[in-house]
Amino acid sequence: MVESSQQLSNRYDNDGYFVIRNYFNETQISSLRNVVLKFHELWKADNEEFYETEAFNSSLITGSEYLSPEDRTVLFNFISSKKVMEVVDAVIPNNPAFMNTQLFFNPVNPKQKDFWHRDCQYDYDIDDQMKVISETQVLHLRLPLFDEPGMEIIPGTHKRWDNEEEYNVRQEENGKVSSDSLSGGKKIALSAGDLLVFSADMIHRGLYGLDRLALDILIFDSASDYVDYVDDDCLPTQSMINTMTDSRLFQNTLQLKSMVCPQ
């Protein structure tokens, strides 16, 4: 790792994100890309109308609907790999848990624009959004599978509420729309092999263009109440867990699920 765990932790704590350039080699990205493209092609065929009219992402990549057990195992072994876990541990050192995977791509509709948001705005009202950003922790690990325009983020908004400009744009108030520019925006172009780590609840937007295809791994702090967001089908079987060098992410999720729904 180019920087120490403490340095990465400090950067995330201060800014809500960090980038590690060329973190994964071509062999690792090629293997990941091969599996993800299988999922993507099958998902597109199965969701043709949605894909062609409004889609810009899909989810549940590690599920069984589109991938074989062998391909799912490739994903699980990647997610639980030493390189991924070193980064996760730097940001969430106590009982990190697996939530989901998402795949981000360019919308087919050329009129569709990228938009500013906090992930929590889709589940919480304003008062609860304020509470969520100060109390809970959800992490995106973004792996671009091809070179792409990347992300635009507002550093520090993982710990503070919107200013007036940000609020009006994100909430589309006072004549603003969520695709408007924000003065505090920082654009981060990404290349295949880079790793972008950012808070789900900071103000951010994906940037469309090039051959955008980015795999996001979502991780949460076990102390947060997010286990209900986890789809059982996206978790590994015991035989898959047995192949992992470090299965903590999945074991922690399974333990949380057993506490909610005891056998």
- DSSP summary, beta strand count: 9
Tally the structural domains. Answer: 1
Q: Which regions are unreliable across 5 or more consecutive residues at pLDDT < 50?
A: none
Provide the gyration radius in Å: 18 Å
Structural class: alpha+beta
Helix content: 25-40%
Mean residue pLDDT: 95
Largest sheet, spatial ordering of strands: 1-7-4-9-3-2
Can you tell me the CATH topology? Jelly Rolls
Q: CATH first level: which class?
A: Mainly Beta
Largest sheet: 6 strands, antiparallel
Share of residues in strands: 15-25%
Distance between the termini: 40 Å
Distinct helical segment count = 9
Protein name: Phytanoyl-CoA dioxygenase family protein
InterPro entries: Phytyl_CoA_dOase-like (IPR008775)
Pfam family, one: PhyH
Keywords: Dioxygenase, Oxidoreductase
Nutshell version of this structure?
By secondary structure, the protein is an alpha+beta fold.
Describe the structure.
By secondary structure, the protein is of the alpha+beta class. It has one domain (5-260): Jelly Rolls (Sandwich), CATH 2.60.120. The chain is built from 9 helices and 9 strands. The protein has helices at 5-15, 26-46, 48-53, 69-79, 82-91, 126-135, 164-170, 238-241, 248-260, and strands spanning 17-20, 57-59, 96-105, 138-144, 148-153, 186-190, 195-199, 204-206, 213-221. The strands form 2 sheets. The protein has a 6-stranded antiparallel β-sheet.
